[in-house]
Design brief:
Layout: H1 3-9, H2 16-27, E1 31-35, H3 38-44, E2 54-58, E3 63-67, E4 70-71, H4 76-83, H5 85-94, E5 102-106, H6 107-112, H7 116-120, E6 125-129, E7 139-142, H8 145-152, E8 159-164, E9 169-176, E10 179-187, E11 190-192, H9 199-211, H10 225-233, E12 247-249, E13 261-264, H11 271-284, E14 289-298, E15 301-310, H12 316-319, H13 330-339, E16 351-352, H14 355-362, E17 369-371, E18 379-387, H15 392-406, E19 409-414, E20 419-427, H16 428-441, E21 446-452, E22 457-458, E23 461-465, E24 475-484, H17 490-500, E25 504-509, E26 515-521, H18 523-533, E27 541-549, E28 558-560
Parallel strand pairs: 16-22, 19-23, 25-28
Antiparallel strand pairs: 1-2, 1-17, 2-3, 3-4, 5-8, 6-7, 6-8, 9-10, 9-14, 10-13, 11-12, 14-15, 18-20, 18-21, 19-20, 24-26, 24-27, 25-26
Amino acid sequence: MNYFTSKAFEARGVSLCAYLIALAGFQRGLRVTFYNDPQLTSQVTTAADARGTIFSLSDDKAVHFFLRTRGSLTTSEAHRNSISKWKTKELLTRAGVGTPRGIMLETEQARQEPDLFARFGCREVVVKPVSGSLGKGVTTGITCQAQLVEALQTIESRRVVLEEHVRGVEYRYYVARGEVVAVTGREAANVVGDGESTLEALVASKNRVRARNPHLSSRRIKLDRATLSFLALQGQDLTTVPARGEKVYLSSAANLSRGGDSIDATQLVSDQSKAAAVAAACALGIPNAGVDIINVEQDGKEHNYVIELNSQAHIGSHSFPMQGSGQGNRVAEAIVESYFPERTSKIAGDVFFDFSYVKQGLGTGGLSGVSLPVLRKGMLKKRLTLASPLPVAYVTRHCEKLMKQTGCFGEVHSFASGRFHIRLLAEESNAASFREELVDKLKEIEVIEEREFNAPIDAKVCVVHHLEEEATEPVSSRLIIAGKVQGVGYRKWLQSRALKKAADGWVRNRSDGTVEALLHGNASQVAELIEECREGPARSWVDRVRVKESRLRPRAGFRVRSTLKLS
């Protein structure tokens, strides 16, 4: 899990979309404020815990408010039109945008028409309530009057839409700044057999993978009555053992909320379908929208049918798909740039904020809002290595206090050997003031090293204690370092740092683009080296470091090994 993913994981669930947009604004130097007005919250969302979903982005010229992905540039009328499936269909048809043909009826009237299926005149029909989301109340693949009557009994709204069922491949397009910035395909919940595990075990294994995904962690495969019934229709149950490579579907609906897979399809769909998505958003007057399109290949031509639009669409699937690399935070960044066109570049793309701090602050009684610090141009990241015989708590307390007094953010890392690493995020003058005042106030302190670093960092002040006391026995740790770590001198740099600390071990490249290292020495030395590995040499960019204890004892010295070829 890389740093961006781990930070997004803090906001998983209903707040994820808000976090992604707030992060994009924050990294561009905008002021970000989250709100917790119970009266306002109840009017715009029904979420059980809406903390962190309502926020504003602002600069010296404008303030824009958001509920998750829907901002103040989306008019109330456009939002209402997108909620109404019939109004959406009318506006799309008027604009000449392809959409399945359909009719709207009073639900009670539809229930009483004995020949409604025949009168509609389509081989397959979809029934859906006039308004709704997440596929609630939608029945597809209806092929006769009896199935239509059954489907109508599930409709709770006063009006219903009957629509031609178009068979094809459905995608969610996200339109922002007048262009498609991401496309996600959806596949019904499924597992792939290994020839040994039961369906129940395969589902449990896949759910563990989904649990590590910020967008899918709350959308796991459910082994409910509907799933069991679907398996029974295929002559299977939870004890079935599929053959190796055999894909078993657990539902007919490609619904992410029911355990479906999200697939990054941004580079797979045609320019024609992307143009249809843009035209659909324009037809409803929505500046940023999720557009669902079914693409059909017929007679050698592609036909695009817009199913619906969402002015408050989830964007997490574009950043964190089940399959494919995903689009990072590109969708959120495009949304921010549509509101602040002059903010097309980031002040700092590797500086993040702590979302748990936001939720804790909004949960405090009487606190109606939480504002994030504002990033400023010219901020740099600097690491100081200090040594001091003074008590750890005394040094860290003064470091925290001075950071706040001098306008610096950062982390204070303490080690049992009386050494400290201080990572600063600050303007150069503020960082210099911090260093001067620290040395002035703590006389028994030595600045061993001062250098810039490239690792991600949070805009906050915190202390991390790595070891309370020095261990008597040497330790070994095995590291896998990911990011831009090959071809930048990472191995030679680590060898130099390890030899300087008299640590043993080795380092090597791996064919998957990562660097692997074994560090052996006293616990404090190894802990310090691990923290330095999170920064790397000047030309590197460390995305994540995975650390495991090891029982290996390398021979004396520190060597650079040849590349490990992975199968």
